[in-house]
Amino acid sequence: MSGWTSDELMTVNAARALADARTCFVGIGLPSAAANLARRTARPDLVLIYESGTIGSRPTRLPLSIGDGELADTADAVVSVPEMFNYWLQGGRIDVGFLGAAQLDRYANINTTVVDRGPGRPQGRLPGAGGAPEIAASCGEVLIVLRHSPRSFVERLDFVTSVGHGSGPGDRRRLGLRGKGPTAVITDLGVLRPDPATAELVLTELHPGVTAEQVRAATGWELRTADTVGTTVPPTAQELSALRALKTAGRAAA
């Protein structure tokens, strides 16, 4: 692949996944890069919402955290965190939640809390849950973006931070969770989506130059593929320019 990096290809495709969204509850890191890129390309009128209480933020650069003053300075409104969660999120008023993950299983359940580092070693502490459990539970649908490796795509999570599709079909309804749950997982190798019948993640698209064998080798379970696996469209010059400008401005701010 020439002209772009695998991370750029992943971020561009994650941004494109927001083309039909109206409101997006944004996680920090890769989800924030994708959502801010979407507002500059695929969905200019996308309303970005961060758990610190900012609604309609229009940052000029990638925010450094959910508490970055740039988010409040450019927002349409800033509300309290309890209002954000109780009224906007749990009330079902947000279309898409965009999350990252440290570990992901075949049913798109997420771990961002703790990992088992092996016998005789202490558990590895991760950033934690934050608002992710509520985002995964209450948004109309959830998109997940992360780099693809056996360390991240695991047979069994060390800890369940946020429920995706639980242990299969019907689990979200049984648990009283609103919305569809995860509808796509975008990685630096391709795109996975839940099978309508089993809710298990299936490889549906490959990025240019990537093979299904590469994706299977980077997955900690026996990954199934769709009957027809598509190929994602390479980034355009406009998308790459917008993404690189966001990252350059973010680094300067940091």
Give a verbal description of the structure.
About 30% of the residues lie in helices and about 20% in strands. The protein has a ten-stranded mixed beta sheet, sandwiched between helices. It has eight helices and 14 strands. It has about 250 residues and is α/β, with parallel strands linked by helices. The relative contact order is 0.16.
Secondary-structure map:
Blueprint (H helix, E strand, L loop, with lengths): L5 H11 L6 E4 L3 H11 L6 E4 L3 E2 L13 H5 L3 E2 L2 H9 L6 E4 L3 E2 L5 E2 L2 E2 L8 E2 L6 H7 L2 E5 L25 H5 L6 E5 L3 E5 L6 E6 L5 H6 L6 E8 L5 H17 L1
Parallel strand pairs: 1-2, 1-5, 5-10, 10-11, 13-14
Antiparallel strand pairs: 2-3, 3-4, 6-7, 8-9, 11-12, 12-13
Task: Summarize it.
With 254 residues, the protein is α/β, with parallel strands linked by helices. The protein is built from eight helices and 14 strands.
